[in-house]
Amino acid sequence: MQKYNSSFLIVLILLTFSLVFAGCKKDDDATVATKALLTTGTWKGVSYRVYSTAGGKTLIDSTESLSNTTKTFSENGTVVTTITDGEGNKTSSTGAWTLSNDKKLTIISLTNPSYYTIKDISSSSLVLSNSGSYTKDGVTSTAEQTATYSK
């Protein structure tokens, strides 16, 4: 009986480890796939939306064009953002980017980090979002910014 319990325990431990490692593999595969999509080509800005509320009332709901902006993510961890003004002059800035397993994207330009969640990514569409909330004097305020890019 003791030998049966030991064998069962060993099999249970091996099964547990294989499930844990298989579960981690899915996250790693998803992150690798997201990185591959992110670093393929240049993303052209489509729109930028700001939505803000306070106490359940909408304060801001504004959408602007991002057609003058591009982002190029490189596999080496750099990102180049280029903005073209109304006269066709281009200004580029280079920063660094990282991606975590839960689709949290960090972009560091100069010394200021920006934190985004990748809400959607495909070979032709990228949607980045960041949001936050705070409460002051019993009133909760929220804000969300969403940037949409295409190829």
From TrEMBL:
This protein's UniProt keywords: Signal
Signal peptide range equals 1-22
The UniProt entry, under InterPro entries, shows: Lipocalin-like (IPR024311)
- TM ranges: none
Tell me any Pfam family this protein matches: Lipocalin_4
List residues of the Lipocalin-like domain. Answer: 40-128
Superkingdom, taxonomy of origin:
Bacteria
| UniProt name for this protein | Lipocalin-like domain-containing protein
Species in which this protein is naturally found: Xanthocytophaga flava
